[in-house]
Design goal:
Helix 2 packs across helix 5. Strand 8 and strand 9 form a beta hairpin. The chain is 30% helix and 22% strand. It is built from 8 helices and 12 strands. The chain is globular, with a radius of gyration of 16 Å.
Length: 229
């Protein structure tokens, strides 16, 4: 399970040894959560999937200095829905200090969630797992119209997080999802006005959606600085 280390500790300054330790912690967290069995793999085979990612993580994340805020992470190891379906990965998330499993909003029609796919311009890396860098839950956008927040993120050369990346964020750092500091995941869309989002409901993470033109004081827009496979 995730350790008690906070995002504040993990994102202040990343040395080479810090990066390697954080990489190993994230892999172990996924193993402890039960991802290998859900993927139909042995633990060793599951760990081997992440081997090729260590070099790009070390090259890019080591030495990174990020604001000491609890809504940031230097990198996240992401497991795609091709390996573990969202219906199985969302329940593996919890809030900090809580045990209730994450849930999926009932307003997603049966089978509809799988049609929320990544935006073409994100050009996600190939493979069942990859890494996303410089993650920010985007609390500055709380109260902003999601479509406006998306424009601002793009102007900064960043991209919105996908659903899988949001799940990875909360799985690795449960404290990233906090009261009045929840976040939209505009990198996954169905082609309509709905924007997926993670928020808190009954003491657990909930994957739902909001309209792209409706602002919410408690909902920001999560984004990333880059990805690698």
């Amino acid at each position: 399970m995730p350790t008690s280390a906070t995002l504040r500790e993990a994102t202040a300054t990343m040395t080479g040894s810090d990066t390697s330790a954080e990489f190993d912690r994230q892999v172990q967290t996924l193993v402890d959560l039960g991802y290998p069995a859900l993927a139909g793999l042995t633990e060793d085979a599951f760990r081997d999937l992440f081997g090729p990612l260590r070099a790009p993580v070390t090259a890019r994340a080591a030495g990174v200095r990020l604001p000491p805020a609890e809504g940031r992470a230097p990198f996240l190891l992401v497991v795609t829905r091709a390996l573990v379906p969202l219906e199985q990965s969302v329940p593996l998330t919890t809030l900090a200090g809580k045990k209730s499993p994450g849930v999926i909003e009932r307003f997603y029609a049966p089978g509809e969630l799988e049609r929320f796919v990544s935006l073409p311009e994100l050009a996600l890396p190939d493979g069942a797992v990859y890494v996303v860098f410089d993650v920010d839950r985007g609390e500055e956008f709380c109260g902003a119209v999601p479509s406006d927040a998306l424009s601002t993120v793009a102007a900064r050369g960043r991209t919105p997080l996908t659903i899988e990346e949001g799940v990875a964020f909360v799985a690795q750092y449960p404290q990233a999802l906090a009261k009045n500091k929840c976040f939209s995941l505009g990198g996954s869309r169905l082609g309509d006005r709905r924007v997926p989002a993670l928020w808190i409901s009954k003491g657990a993470p909930k994957l739902g959606w909001c309209w792209e033109g409706n602002p919410h004081t408690w909902l920001g827009l999560a984004s990333a600085g880059g990805r690698a496979g």
